[in-house]
Amino acid sequence: MIQKPSTSSVRSPQSVLITGASGALGLQVARRFVEAGLTVYATWYGGTRPTAGPDQPWLEQVKWLEMDVRDIASVRRGLPGDAEGQSGIDALVHCAGGFRWTHADEVSDEDLDFLLDTNLKSAFQVVRAALPGMKKRGFGRIVFVGARATRAGGAGMGPYAASKAGINLLTESLAEEVKGLDINVNAVLPSIIDTPANRKDMPQADPSKWVRPEELADIIFALTQPWSRAIHGALIPVSGRV
Questions:
Q1: What is the pLDDT of residues 1-38, one digit of tens each?
Q2: Is 45 one of the annotated active-site residues of the chain?
């Protein structure tokens, strides 16, 4: 019988920062980490902050941070830190992002700025704020949410896919930079996530083929755990049945 290797000597994260946690995926990721007993810091910006209720009592355990992840000052101001101002979180899950469907020669300046800032610049900002503390402690877990669309171009997907493609190279480059430390960096590349917004925008599609947020949250959680320590610098497609 094959036995699972012992991970008793490998550290587990005790705290996690989840960006974009007010969205459909971010909420499920936050729930997964709360149920695992971690201290969960979750960001929201604009709109209404999720609140606990009869259907979501676990939200009472989330420590909410109002943060514009595109702005380094806002990120550094919001993160919990040590006496030297360095982040004290063990894991970072970057769910924040946005989508626009438009042809490359028709994309507006507003949409282009939105995609680059929300999908790519934000990733650099949270890394700039969180990674120094991880390096100081010699431990950390980082998971980016990329997109399967970066692996094959499609009409109307150019600006979005290009803004997400930077996440792929950032993941691989960061993995090289920290491979001498107990810091893992990976990215999941989902296809279509089964969210209310996607169901509204694609009423004729079959959402049973899409990726459920709960399923993706489980994969993200697993990438932060001791048994996944050997997965480093990976771009992991999560395609459902699309």
A1: 334 444 456 789 999 999 999 999 999 999 999 999 99
A2: no
Q: Is residue 30 part of a domain?
A: yes
In one letter, which amino acid is 8? S
Q: Could you tell me the residue range of the domain that residue 134 belongs to?
A: 15-238
Domain membership flag for residue 170 = yes
Which residues does residue 236 pair with via DSSP β-bridges, in sequence order?
A: 188
**Catalytic-labelled residue, pool 160, 170, 194, 219:** 160
Question: What total number of domains does the chain contain?
Answer: 1
Residue 130 domain-assigned (yes or no): yes
Picking from 167, 41, 73, 154, the residue whose alpha carbon sits closest to that of residue 115 is: 167
Give the Cα separation of 240 and 75 in Å (integer).
33
Asked if the structure places residue 3 within a domain, the reply is no
**In the numeric block, which tokens belong to residue 161?**
């896919």
The CATH number given to whatever domain includes residue 30 is 3.40.50.720
β-bridge mates for residue 94, sequence order: 19, 144
Q: Which of 127, 49, 68 is nearest to 94 (CA)?
A: 127
pTM: 0.93
Integer Cα distance of 157 and 189 in angstroms: 15
Positions in the chain whose pLDDT score sits under 50? 1-7
What pLDDT was estimated at residue 9? 64
Render pLDDT for 194-212 as a digit per residue (tens, 0 to 9). 999 999 999 999 999 999 9
Whole-angstrom Cα distance, residue 134 to residue 89?
7
Neighbours of 171 (CB within 10 A): 24
Place of tokens 């989508």: 99
